[in-house]
Task: structure prediction
Amino acid sequence: MKLSALAEKLGLEYTGADIDITGVNTLDKAGPSEISFLVNPKYQQQLETTKAGCVLTSGPYAEKAGCALISGNVYMDLAKVVNLFACPQGCLSGLSELAFIHPEAEIDESATVYPFAFVGAGAKIGAGSVIFSGVYVGEETRIGTRCTLYPNAVVMGGLTLGDNVIIQPGAVLGGDGYGYAQTPAGHMKIPQIGTVAVENDVEIGSNTAIDRAALDTTRIKRGTKIDNLVQIGHNVEIGEHCLIIGQVGIGGSTVVGNGVILAGQVGVADNASIGDNVIVGAQGGISGRVKPGLKLAGSPAMPAGTYLKAAGVCVPKLPELFKRVKNLEKELEAMKDAAGEDHE
Result:
């Protein structure tokens, strides 16, 4: 599309020629008909060498770019631009005869179900939702409008998905929670008879597992985005607009507040409570109660500033400190021996 048309769609101003824009690319890879972007100042030198036809950037860099689309929130507008040029996954519409759809299932006429999907009895799928091949939708599960379930996603029976939910390939919602009673004969399975509720505008990454509750509901609230390979235990509640990054593990019955960020490989013990707007750095370990607004790192987690001082300043000095302590011990022993000889 013309740069002028793109600017009008985004409500932004532009400088330079009204060129044709055919795609989006990075500063070092973009061609003369592509739009690129600059957010991080450390890449501003690439403005001198880029072949991009136009650069989406903020005001201070617009003059250096020549042809620029000027934004007050570059990341947000970049997402809008990419959406305009992105090719959606899939090529079918309607209900495939090769899918199994139970006669008692209710599927909106505008929904799409791909070949070899399974939709169980009593399931409901809302308007505009897309169910790709290999997806399992269990009995009595409710899927809202404009949801996308990518190949081999599993949504077990009795679950609820709101509107605009995205389930990436291989994710499993509603598998049994990890519940066992210890008996003299071994580990006795405790039936998990609760459910999972996913609210509007949630995205769940590939191969993530969200366990059904033992008795009540495992709940993911609206706007939360969950990365790949995340484990969420039974009866967990995750608040609104959280970011849960890859390989995070959250133990059962934990409550996570709104706006929380858990970076990669964070581990949260069961029955923990994390307040609103908490940020936990990668590989942090959380247990007990965390007050709202804290920035934590390390395992066990501590204030991020304290952790950075300990890890960045103290830990590298431990080998030298160990040698000094050993030398001091030797000197102390020598002083004791000398004092003993003088006493004799």
The longest strand covers residues 34-37.
